[in-house]
Amino acid sequence: MASSSSILLAAAALAALFAVSYGSALTFKAGPGCSATKLVLIPSIAISEVEVKEKGADDFTELKESPAGTWTLDSKTPLKTPLSVRFAAKSGGYRVVDDAIPAGFKSGASYKTSLQL
């Protein structure tokens, strides 16, 4: 029969595995008003300093944050998709999700990334 300290050690190891493996996946929802020239992003997790890079572009373009926690980009020309997203992480540094917003994105659609935060 296992001692109580062995059981506690096994439980702690399992808890650590779950904590490392099961973070929250970052999802971006395309908010109301999205169009070929306007992007409205609603992230599933609080992030800051959100920027996007259009397909073929060299640089990222900053999005404007609203008090409601949405991020908006108004462009004079149609956005070249897919869009990569860069943002500041609370833990420090920046994260980039390549091709996070696909071609043909639509208001109301959610786009799950493989990034766990």
From TrEMBL:
Residues 1-25 form the signal peptide. One of its GO terms (cellular component) is extracellular region. It comes from Digitaria exilis. InterPro entries: Allergen_Lolp2, Expansin_CBD, Expansin_CBD_sf. Residues 47-113 form the Expansin-like CBD domain. Keywords: Secreted, Signal. Gene3D superfamilies: Expansin, cellulose-binding-like domain. It is found in: Secreted. Its main location: secreted. This is Expansin-like CBD domain-containing protein.
